[in-house]
Each structure stands twice: as structure tokens, then as C-alpha cells.
Amino acid sequence: MHTRIRNLNHTRVMQVEETQLYIENSDKTTSCLVEARFLSPFGWGVAKRIEKFGQSKFIENLQKSRSGMKFILERLRENGYRLHALRNAVPH
Questions:
Q1: pLDDT average, residue stretch 72-92
Q2: Contact 50, 13 (CB under 8 A)
Q3: N or C: the chain end with fewer CB closer than 10 Å?
């Protein structure tokens, strides 16, 4: 399963894009590859400070995000769903 998240507010100050790739392993565990990009349009050293601030906030909230997705995946597995089945699901 592949997800992409973007910030909706403060986009004039900084744009954040996070992608996550969830892979079901043969031992029934799930691995997750996370990539985040921070981009600020300001110059003169201000952009780097803004991007570092965004990165630190991202790192602070990463564990909460992982816990939330872990909860969702556990509930899906309890109901018999698997990642490869979700990939082939057709939206209603």
C-alpha cells in the first residue's frame, strides 16, 4: 500500500510531502518505508531554518503517525483484510 500526505495549511511558508510504502512481509509483519520532503520558498537562510523546524515537528509526530497506522492495520487484519487484497479493491 502506498500513501502520500501533503500539508494543507501554511503552504506559502513551507510545503511538506510525506510518502509511505507499506509492505507485507512473509512472516505476516508489515514494513514501512517513509520519506518526507520539506520545501520553503524563502531565501537568505530563512528557508533552511523553516525547513529544519518542519523536520523537527515531523520527527516529533512520526511515532504518533506510526501508532495510528499500526492500529488501523491490526484492525484490518482482525477482519481478514490483507495488504495485497486492499491493492486490488475497487472503490464503490
A1: 68
A2: yes
A3: C
Residue 46 Rama label (left phi>0; alpha psi -120 to 50; beta): alpha
pTM confidence score: 0.65
What's the Rg (C-alpha) of the chain?
17
Exposure string over 60-90, b if 16+ CB within 10 A, otherwise e? eeeeeeeeebeeebeeeeeeeeeeeeeeeee
Name the residue type at position 82: R
- Three-class secondary structure of residue 28 per DSSP: coil
pLDDT digits (tens, 9 = 90+) for 31-51: 889 899 998 988 778 898 999
